[in-house]
Amino acid sequence: MTEIYSGRTAGKKPDLSVNIGKLRMKNPVTTASGTFGFGPEYAPYLDLNRLGAIVVKGTTLQPRPGNPTPRLVETPAGILNSIGLQNPGVDCLIGEYLPYLAQYDLPVIVNISGDTVEDYAELAGKLERAAGVAALEVNISCPNVKKGGMQFGSDPYMAAEVTRAVRGNTDKPVIVKLSPNVTSIVGVAVEVAAAGADALSMINTLLGMAIDIRRRRPLLGNIMGGLSGPAVRPVAVRAVWQVYREVDLPIIGMGGIVTAEDALEFILAGATAVAVGTANFINPRAALEVLEGIEQYLTEHQIGEIGELVGAAHRT
Amino acid sequence: MSLLTDAKVVKQIKLAPHYYRLILAAPATTRAAGPGQFLHVRCGETLEPLLRRPLSIHAVNRERGELAHLYRVAGRGTALLAKKKRGDTINILGPLGRGYTMPSAPERFAVVAGGIGIAPLYFLLQETGARGQSALVFWGASTKEQFFSPAEPFWNADGTGGKYPSIVQEICAQGHQIILATDDGSAGFHGTVTDLFERYLNNPSGREEILSRYREAVTTSGLIKTDGEAGAVCSCSPGAMLNFNQNPESETFARVYGCGPGVMLKELCRIIGTHKIPGEISLEERMGCGVGACLSCACKTRDEEKDGFRYSRVCLEGPVFPAGEVLWD
């Protein structure tokens, strides 16, 4: 790499832009699906224009009421949730939230979920025709729904079938969100890549549970839920590391990112972009602080563009 | 308008074992706050415990730019909060949620509080009292000590709280009338507050007797003191403070406001449903984001179009809900 290309010139701002397939993001920081609503919830606290992208709440064909309560348990350095994909349905997303988000200079990644392969295909088709969708994130890893969800993500061939179905109905970038609740995440990633995915999101939550010892029963209404937060970060970094070595697709890394240092771990392990999730609940400005910290790191280490860091820990 | 800001601790007053009043300096947040709303409070500095804690806004002093929480130490978060001292900084997010609908001008209204459920209702009483509106307050607790006798002044300046010997007297000084119930009979009516409230509603001709009996109980409980007694700064006599409606038999409440434990609220909703009085209740639920994004703090509310119910977000559609809207398991 030449001196000019790496931009080692004093005072020059580092280039933070990244590409996730055809999707160009002005910086690598986005929000994890389900932790940032549809955007308006957090708009009072940060300028949404500054985010690299937004990943909106998991969307299904029909509205879903969600799981019984309680839906949330705080665990050591983490939370267990079992929301159950409560959402107003794709038509509401297209009619209300996409027009709202159009006021921002912000690529919108829509997270989609279905009970059947056909559901995914239909969702992809509807969103292909909708204005204001930058990419699709295919959720084959939700641990909180009875049908579909993680069932698709834990079987490499089912995962590939869902990916093909979505691929067949859209020209937008297809990002497949992988579950850590599998024997080999690399195995799933390889099949999904072969089926036409443009990128991978990883990881979704880890299946877990907690029990109330006083009442002697599970704390979550749905018994089991998905673990997120700082507690899962090492698992997520490991998964990104493994997949980066075997699969030549851009990765959006996520799982317990609270600070820029956390995000940099993911990038060094092989993530092209990162998503801030549970940390939004603790600090609504977390995503921006992560972004500012990454920029500062690049400046301090005189790194001209973020791309130089992606997977760098594999090369040292 | 909701803000994310650092607030300075002005004072932390221990009311009783595990119960505190926390006063924070947060001018913009205070200006924006309405009764029934809450703040999502970062209790510690580390990632353990991870989440913020939702605390209802208990009172405001807009001139000083300060607001108060009344809270019970219930777990790791509130235990950290109780350690905060004057001058410490606490990150707060809010005001959040839908609060109480203020009663229209001449309306006579009732307030029914269970234990620490008085916390957000106190703010409503403060605001309505300042507008010259008066409520009949029914407050229940397990025992007399849980009506709290603050050891330190709350706010001295301007009549929005002061150096009264108890929260009961503070409420009276705002121009409201109050009767008490305790589970153990140590003050006021011996039984639940909803039971007392129902008796009052059910039996118009017996109201005079209920009021006089429990007025007596409030006066003799030691929770109210006269001028000069125990250094209490109060311009009005207990007689005036306990100046109940002269004609309670024909009294009707245009609205009822409630807050307290789930079982109490369920019972309250049944009672006011029977009497066809509109009401609003404030719910408590574990929360993730506090801003409507994560859908963790769901509660079942009526929805005729769907399967008869839908999940509403306590943080956004609540925490105050119309009484008839909430579905109880």
TrEMBL record, chain B:
Gene3D superfamilies hit by this protein: Dihydroorotate dehydrogenase, electron transfer subunit, Nucleotide-binding domain of ferredoxin-NADP reductase (FNR) module, Translation factors
Q: Kindly list the cofactors needed.
A: [2Fe-2S] cluster
> What is a single molecular function from GO for this protein?
oxidoreductase activity
Q: Name one Pfam family in it.
A: DHODB_Fe-S_bind
Q: Which GO terms describe its biological process?
A: pyrimidine nucleotide biosynthetic process
| Protein known as | Dihydroorotate dehydrogenase B (NAD(+)), electron transfer subunit
Q: Does the keyword Membrane apply?
A: no
The cross-references to InterPro entries, in alphabetical order and at most eight, read: Cyt_c3_hydrogenase_gsu, Dihydroorotate_DH_ele_sf, Dihydroorotate_DH_Fe-S-bd, Dihydroorotate_DHASE_ETsu, FAD-bd_FR_type, FNR_nucleotide-bd, PyrK_electron_transfer, Riboflavin_synthase-like_b-brl
FAD-binding FR-type domain sequence ranges: 2-102
Q: Which family does the similarity line name?
A: Belongs to the PyrK family.
Q: Which UniProt keywords apply?
A: 2Fe-2S, Electron transport, FAD, Flavoprotein, Iron, Iron-sulfur, Metal-binding, Pyrimidine biosynthesis, Transport
